[in-house]
């Protein structure tokens, strides 16, 4: 695969360095000095979690980002129209141009795709790397079914969010929050209004983790039916540009498909940073694909 990508670089006469790392930490170390070495574009070969780690290492340094999908779900690549094959993705990126995209931030940690607090995040925290390697996306499904069948008590969340369209503040309580910068969430078409360059994100508030609520929400998403959540008891839908989530106990957090701990685990402030990064897209116009 790398030989094929090298030949594509030669075909397009593009100066580059390909760094093959065994760990995300090795990649992060190389990225730290890449801008000083004269590189202006950073391609990341990996899944959404790898993209998240290297985004946080490099954001604000003036890079444009190219996404080469090589992970479990590759939600970002799917949503913005990048081919699933790494070699096809490389050819696509070599003919692409930088386009601005929104970024989410929670307590100084950034994310490009989606996030959750509560049930869904607890599921992600319960999936180990061996299960992901063996079962792929089904590892999350099986863990979610186990969690729903024998749910532990999840801390009640107190939410305060700002609706950017009405400039109104909404307060609510819930057991789980699922929010996204993309229409796809973990391989499901779960959101229908959000766009990666809209200056806002969509979210669902789940009042409980009862099986009927979860099955209704994710089942409707699996069918791809817009507005399905309206018929699911205990689910609220909102759009926001800033949101605060608080709990009396430690809260589980998931960012771009990976379990994350930020230290202050009882109080999260989510913000949308409009057009904060540039991603390579081979599209007419200046908006990422829906």
Notes on the structure:
By secondary structure, this protein is an alpha+beta fold. The chain has two domains: 2-103 and 277-281, Rossmann fold; 109-274, Tumour Suppressor Smad4. Helix content is 30%, strand content 31%. The chain is built from nine helices and 16 strands. It has helices at residues 2-11, 24-34, 48-58, 75-80, 86-94, 119-125, 129-135, 138-149, 211-223; strands at residues 41-46, 64-69, 97-106, 109-111, 114-117, 157-163, 168-174, 176-180, 184-185, 188-189, 201-206, 235-240, 242-247, 253-255, 258-260, 267-281. Strands 1, 2, 3, 4, 6, 7, 13 and 16 form an eight-stranded mixed β-sheet that branches. A six-stranded antiparallel β-sheet has the order 12-11-8-5-14-15, sandwiched between helices. The protein has a two-stranded antiparallel ribbon with strand order 9-10. A hairpin with a 2-residue loop joins strand 9 and strand 10 (188-189). It is globular and about 55 Å long. Residues 284-290 have low confidence and may be disordered.
CATH topology of the largest domain: Tumour Suppressor Smad4
Radius of gyration: 19 Å
Number of domains: 2
Distance between the termini: 28 Å
Number of strands: 16
Structural class: alpha+beta
Q: In percent, how helical is the residue content?
A: 25-40%
| Named CATH architecture of the largest domain | Sandwich
- Mean pLDDT score, rounded? 85
Work out the strand percent. Answer: 25-35%
Number of helical elements: 9
Q: Give, in order, the helices and strands.
A: HHEHEHHEEEHHHEEEEEEHEEEEE
Q: List segments where confidence is low: pLDDT < 50 over at least 5 consecutive residues.
A: 284-290
Biggest sheet: strands, sense, closure? Answer: 8 strands, mixed
| Global geometry | globular
CATH class of the largest domain: Mainly Beta
